[in-house]
Amino acid sequence: MGLVIATTVGLTAWIVLWATGSSALDAFMVTAVIITLGATAKILTPYLPGRE
Fold first, then answer.
1. Which of 7, 21, 24, 32 is the most exposed place for a label (fewest CB within 10 A)?
2. Three-state DSSP string of 1-52
3. pLDDT at residue 50, rounded to an integer
4. Confidence category of residue 52, pLDDT binned at 50, 70, 90
């Protein structure tokens, strides 16, 4: 569920930044970073201490 939220927030940020005059590529880089952080958190969660 967290990855879906990260993707939604990232795409929303992309649309808002693009609409306010940023380059589409620059706005998409922000989206890519948000989605990558969400995916990284999803992958690493099982390996954190205290998770069994």
1. 21
2. CHHHHHHHHHHHHHHHHHHCCCCHHHHHHHHHHHHHHHHHHHHHHHHCCCCC
3. 86
4. low
